[in-house]
Known about the structure:
It is a single chain. This protein is mainly alpha-helical and 590 residues long. It has helices at residues 10-15, 28-35, 41-77, 82-86, 89-94, 96-107, 111-136, 143-166, 171-202, 208-212, 244-256, 269-277, 316-324, 337-356, 371-388, 402-420, 432-463, 467-492, 496-526, 536-558, 565-587, and strands at residues 139-140, 168-169, 395-396, 400-401, 530-531, 562-563. The strands form 3 sheets. Strands 1-6 form a two-stranded antiparallel sheet. α3 runs antiparallel to α17 (432-463), α7 (111-136) packs parallel to α18 and α17 (432-463) packs across α18 (467-492). Keywords: Antiport, Calcium, Calcium transport, Ion transport, Membrane, Transmembrane, Transmembrane helix, Transport. Its main location: membrane.
Amino acid sequence: CVEIHNAVSKCEFYLNTKSCETGGLLDYMFFIYCYIPPQYTYFAIALCILFLLLLFIGLGVTADDFLCPSLVVITKTLHLSQNIAGVTFLAFGNGAPDIFSSLAGTEQARLELVMGTLFGGGIFVTSVVAGSIIVAKPFKIMERPFLRDIIFYVCAAFWTFLRIYYGEVTIWHSVGFIVLYILYIFVVIISRLIYNKYKDKNAPKIPEIEISSPSDKPDSKPPAITFHPTGQDDDPEAAGVVLRRFSFRGSISVAVAKKRRSSTHSHHEHVIKAITQSVDSYSNPAFVNGYPPPFDTQVSKTSLSSLLTSNGEQTTLKEFLLQVCPIDILAWPDKTWPFKIVDVIKAPICGLLIITVPVVDYENDKDNWCRPLCIIQCLTAPMFVVFALGKYNVMLWNTMPLWGVILIASVIVAFVVFFTSSNDSQPIYHSMFGFIGFVASVVWVYLLASEIVSLLKTVGVIFKLSDTILGLTVLAWGNSIGDFISNLSVARQGYPRMGISACYGGPLLNLLLGIGIPYTIMIIRGGQPLQLKYERLTTLLYSTLTIILLSTIVTITALRFQAKRCFGIILICMYFAFLAIAIILETGII
């Protein structure tokens, strides 16, 4: 399709070339080369790039504010332990954007894009993000989880490179990625149990008054984590390796608006508390449930008291309007202009998500129950799923369309909710809306990820870029920029260990599940192995990631696990050197 640049009539070339089909909901190539006059082509390209940015924002919002809360509800409903929940359901939410981007790329037979994204994202996080954290706040790294995660990551990267080098992935290979992740789960859980047993056995006897009473000085700082005898240096691992992205992303809103009041539309704060409630408490009074004090102690449980009427009665209409408003109006005055602009940009996608995805939030007033909205969602959520998956034309019993059956069932459920619930309190079956929200949010994530992959094909054709370079740059940056902002924000607030740990556990999860799940699905669906294309960029990707990981182990060990600014600067420079070499290889200079 890249030959379209040499065609006299680009529109005619596009219409007659099957390889130019992007496979998305919107036909971006047709929009640029057929719908828009030639003199406005650059304007159309700019619009597509802006829309790509909007899709990335929508993907992050869907995963963080809608999928993650539903996963917390599911884990609580199933009474899963913290460790099991952390490395299963919540791990899925943690890597959802990357996993579904990989699935979308695999379905569109763009395996080079998938590999470029997974390796490129890992390189970006382990170099730029990790380096920025170290530069921002040098600290002592936790030895055991640090070594464990990097060793597993090196093994996973080597296994992936072998599959690309030999050019084929069978069902046994794809399942092997999932098995390796299961082994990682086993090691995490066992090591955590051993650590807790050792910690309890060797915990020093501290007077009870020192445990229950924090310092009398209001300005006093908590003791350094590194030197505490009970081992808080493993503090981030207390919630499971894959939970850090949850708490980090939720902390952004707190860091930006320290005086904000939670609203029923905000779904961030529940994650931090959901994680910390089930973690063993440390003996240091500066820690609560195994975690440092909240980043902002002023954030309180959701209250709608500010919207009370003059006689003290809260109207259902006001509650409904607050729920469906795509902009957090309570936090709006405290936000800076850049974040206000982002809120306005993402308002359309947030509005659609609010209407179609139920959210159960235990940290919000009435667990985020809003009777009118939930009744509407009984109708919109199932219908959205049916139409988004393209199943509206499916006929049941050769007489009735599937969408008709779903609509009738949805209306019945809506009437049941209407007659069995009240506006004042949530019903006993409210948690079931969390399961509905899970299905709807998964479909949204898949839909947005597929559209991003489709739009990236258009970008690649326009700028003559390969799928590999698109994956290791645009898609990797889009999926990782949230981690960069949130991890660095947490490190600057005094929690660098939590940030650095996520720089290895997160990409490891994305690599194993981002290949294991999509490839297994596609191999089972197609009945034959997947063929991979080995390129020079593949060698560069694997070599760079391995060099970064091994040099990190050697350097940090030599520094006695004391991360210093000079090494952080070296990591960042390594990324830009890698990026320069990748561009040189892509352009064919060497």
